[in-house]
């Protein structure tokens, strides 16, 4: 139920509690949610390890996103509130790059994870965002990869709107996974227990309009894996914002996903079995939620000789549900795998370069 938690030993990882997934689709608004989700079963502590910041490719994306928002909203000297700031890396980078003042809130925040004096400028609150924080006034509110973890999304977005109050100049940025891509590509590895809420561009825009915002833009980013929504508070004179009519398409994709998923699982499992049958050694690159979903959905154990991750905080830990020990990429020098499966195709070039620097040239495959 917590695929990103750091687990210290293999047996605890193997005994890790699991939860049920039953996705329900609302034909009226396009929202998709796990109806079996139990918020009490999910833990977000300082042991929750979600950062992608050790990837140069990801850091470039973050810088481009910050620069884009700064060019639109001129953030120097303004207060930026990040809801769900994780380890504080994005907010600290934003403050450093723009000269803004930062306030971040997240139960998994760890001050020891920020380099140098980076904690001197932003203020971090180790807590869940809730009604008690409605007085955190800001000129710009961002919330990245948090809304999909929230079961009562309308109440949550309305809480953000109430916190803004009668300040029409405030702008917001929300970032979530794009469920249209997940459905179209049968990307089951992007469906997991912590993510209880799933959005297409249309359902995300409808949610924010209903909660009292005018949507200025909603678009895909990061290899079409993410949705970015920009909005402002609505008032009595506001014109309707951007909308996306995708209900019919989403309904069709839901049907396609339900019918096509069994064949997808069978094909991917057969691929691994063929590699192993040919005596090939298989490793996977990436140990996050995608990897947990891939391994558990396909029932893979000893078929995968190694799991590696560039995040040094994961080294020596074990993957929840599968018990695989997480190694650093240097481990592959000794293993010399024949096949490496990249858990995220956006990192293929970066992974290929890293393998070359290790003196390795295995078959590199993307999970797709």
Structural class, judged by helices and strands?
A: alpha/beta
Strand arrangement across the biggest beta sheet: 5-4-3-6-7-10-9
Task: Count every helix, treating DSSP H or I runs of 4 or more residues as helices.
Answer: 10
CATH architecture of the largest domain: 3-Layer(aba) Sandwich
Catalogue the unreliable spans.
Answer: none
Could you say which overall geometry the principal axes of the C-alpha atoms support? globular
End-to-end separation in angstroms reads 23 Å
Largest sheet: 7 strands, mixed
Q: What series of H and E elements makes up the topology?
A: HEEHEHEEEHEHEHEEHEHEEHEHE
Using only CA atoms, what is the Rg?
21 Å
Count the domains. 2
CATH class of the largest domain: Alpha Beta
Oligomer: single chain
Give the proportion of residues in helices. 25-40%
Q: What would the average pLDDT be, to the nearest integer?
A: 93
How large a portion of the residues is in β-strands, by DSSP E?
A: 15-25%
Number of strands: 15
- For this structure, the CATH topology of the largest domain is Rossmann fold
CATH homologous superfamily (4th level) name of the largest domain: Vaccinia Virus protein VP39
What does this protein look like?
This protein has a seven-stranded mixed beta sheet with strand order 5-4-3-6-7-10-9, with helices on both faces. Strands 13-12-11-14-15 form a five-stranded parallel beta sheet. Strands 1-2-8 form a three-stranded antiparallel beta sheet, with no helix packed on it. The model has no long low-confidence stretch (mean pLDDT 93). Helix 2 (56-73) packs across helix 3 (89-98). It has two domains: 10-249, Rossmann fold; 268-366, NAD(P)-binding Rossmann-like Domain (Rossmann fold), CATH 3.40.50. The protein contains ten helices and 15 strands. The chain is globular. It has helices at 10-14, 56-73, 89-98, 153-164, 179-184, 201-210, 247-277, 289-298, 331-335, 348-357, and strands spanning 23-25, 32-34, 79-83, 101-105, 123-125, 140-144, 171-177, 197-198, 213-221, 226-233, 282-285, 306-308, 326-327, 339-342, 363-366.
């Amino acid at each position: 139920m917590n695929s990103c938690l750091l687990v210290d030993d293999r047996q605890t990882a193997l005994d890790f509690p699991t939860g049920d997934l039953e996705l329900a689709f609302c034909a009226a608004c396009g929202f998709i949610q796990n109806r079996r989700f139990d918020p009490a079963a999910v833990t977000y502590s300082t042991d929750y390890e979600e950062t992608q910041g050790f990837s140069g490719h990801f850091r470039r994306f973050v810088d481009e996103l910050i620069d884009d928002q700064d060019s639109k909203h001129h953030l120097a000297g303004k207060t930026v509130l990040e809801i769900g700031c994780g380890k504080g890396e994005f907010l600290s980078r934003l403050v450093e790059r723009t000269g803004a003042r930062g306030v971040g809130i997240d139960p998994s925040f760890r001050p020891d994870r920020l380099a140098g004096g980076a904690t001197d400028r932003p203020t971090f609150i180790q807590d869940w965002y809730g009604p008690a924080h409605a007085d955190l006034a800001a000129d710009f509110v961002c919330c990245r990869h948090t809304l999909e973890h929230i079961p009562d999304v309308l109440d949550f977005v309305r809480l953000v709107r109430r916190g803004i109050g009668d300040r029409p100049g405030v702008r917001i940025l929300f970032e979530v996974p794009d469920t249209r891509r997940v459905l179209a590509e049968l990307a089951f590895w992007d469906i997991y227990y912590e993510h209880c809420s799933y959005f297409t561009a249309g359902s995300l825009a409808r949610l924010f309009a209903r909660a009292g915002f005018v949507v200025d833009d909603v678009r895909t980013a990061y290899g079409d894996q993410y949705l970015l929504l920009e909005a402002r508070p609505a008032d009595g004179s506001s014109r309707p914002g951007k909308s996306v009519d995708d209900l019919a398409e989403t309904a069709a994709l839901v049907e396609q996903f339900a019918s096509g998923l069994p064949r997808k699982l069978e094909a991917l499992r057969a691929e691994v079995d063929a590699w192993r049958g040919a005596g090939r050694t298989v490793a996977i690159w990436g140990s996050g939620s995608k990897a947990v979903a891939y391994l558990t959905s396909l029932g893979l154990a000893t078929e995968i000789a190694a799991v590696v991750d560039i995040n040094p905080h994961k080294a020596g830990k074990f993957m929840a549900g599968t018990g695989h020990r997480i190694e650093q990429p240097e481990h592959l020098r000794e293993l010399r795998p024949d096949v490496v499966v990249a858990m995220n195709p956006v990192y293929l070039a970066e992974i290929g370069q890293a393998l070359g620097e290790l003196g390795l040239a295995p078959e590199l495959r993307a999970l797709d």
